[in-house]
Design a protein that fits this description.
With 314 residues, this protein is of the alpha+beta class. The protein has three domains: 36 residues, no CATH class; 119 residues; 108 residues, no CATH class. A four-stranded antiparallel β-sheet has the order 3-4-5-6. The protein has a two-stranded antiparallel sheet with strand order 1-2. A hairpin with a 2-residue loop joins strand 5 and strand 6. The longest helix has 59 residues. The radius of gyration is 42 Å and the shape is elongated. The N and C termini lie far apart (104 Å).
């Protein structure tokens, strides 16, 4: 192969080529025979330099991002687990950088490193190239390991966030029930009655609008513990007619008052959908007087109580 000294065009050397033949690239003509190849050629360091710089740059970026994540942690600490947590945070921040970096390592760096290993006489810096190539492999692998370790914990936190949103809906309804009872002295007969409660921030209206009236017809059930009617001692009066009239009047008044007080709803049960937004499943939430539980836990508690009671019976 012959390289033109004027333009750098490479052409295949032909034995019968004359001196007067022009360059195919620029048209320059040779003034003499081409120079022979030197006995000793200096090896190239360009490919080794590329691998070294690439590996050092990836390590530097990961280390700087880890330092930033460590500085943002509260409380600040240089303990081992603090460094691990900071590295995990840096890995999640660099996850979109790790994908192209991994592709570059698999295709570009691997090809350069293999060419250096195959022709050690033409390329120098094999030791530095090996270290840079190893660093380029280690950083994406570390990012993948850190992300893989934290995936279960992040899924758990995501589930907690979903449950917190569902619990917030239950607490909003409980606050609305409390305000309604404070205003009217009883529980509402229907969920739509909660719109009579003052709602300055619109949270109660948003909670009511999130429930489909057709799907949640039987979700709300108000109830009350009907107290026993108080026993009235008849007053001793002269005359049977006066005594009977007094007894009937007192009994009717006390009966109507007691029934009126007994029929006022003081408690409630509210069933809300779980994360799947479907009613009647095991992940539903049961709200009873401000206490929120899962339907599955309630069923297990009831079944365990029933089985224990059956075992105690002879």
């Amino acid at each position: 192969m012959t390289i033109c000294p004027c333009c750098g065009f490479k052409s295949v050397y032909i034995l019968n080529r004359t001196v007067g033949d022009a360059c195919s690239g620029c048209g320059a003509r040779a003034v003499g025979e081409p120079l022979p190849r030197p006995e000793h050629e200096l090896p190239s360091y360009g490919r080794s330099l590329v691998l070294t710089v690439a590996g050092a740059l990836m390590v530097l970026v990961f280390f700087v991002e880890t330092i930033i994540a460590l500085a943002q942690r509260v409380p600040f600490s240089f303990s081992f687990w603090s460094w691990v947590a900071a590295a995990e945070t840096a890995s999640w921040r660099l996850k979109w950088v790790a994908i192209p970096a991994t592709l570059f390592v698999l295709f570009g760096s691997r090809k350069l490193y293999r060419s250096i290993v195959r022709l050690p006489s033409d390329f120098c810096g094999l030791r530095y190239a090996r270290r840079g190539y190893a660093a380029s492999l280690a950083v994406p692998l570390s990012i993948l390991v850190m992300i893989g370790v934290t995936v279960p914990e992040r899924l758990r936190h995501r589930q907690w966030g979903i449950e917190a949103g569902q619990y917030a809906l239950g607490y909003t309804f409980d606050r609305a029930f409390f305000q309604y009872r404070e205003k009217f002295g009883k529980m509402p007969n229907d969920l739509s009655d909660l719109r009579q409660v003052p709602d300055p921030d619109g949270s109660i209206a948003a909670a009511l609008n999130s429930l489909d009236p057709l799907a949640y017809t039987n979700a709300y059930r108000p109830w009350a513990d009907v107290a026993a009617l108080p026993k009235q001692k008849p007053r001793t009066l002269r005359g049977a007619v006066i005594r009977n009239a007094s007894l009937n009047t007192a009994t009717d008044d006390s009966l109507s008052d007691s029934l009126g007080e007994g029929l006022s709803f003081t408690n409630y049960d509210l069933r809300l959908p779980g994360p799947d937004n479907l009613m009647g499943t095991e992940d539903d939430l049961l709200v009873r007087d401000g206490v929120i539980t899962n339907a599955s836990e309630t069923l297990r508690r009831v079944s365990s109580t029933t089985s224990a009671t059956q075992k105690r019976q002879p």
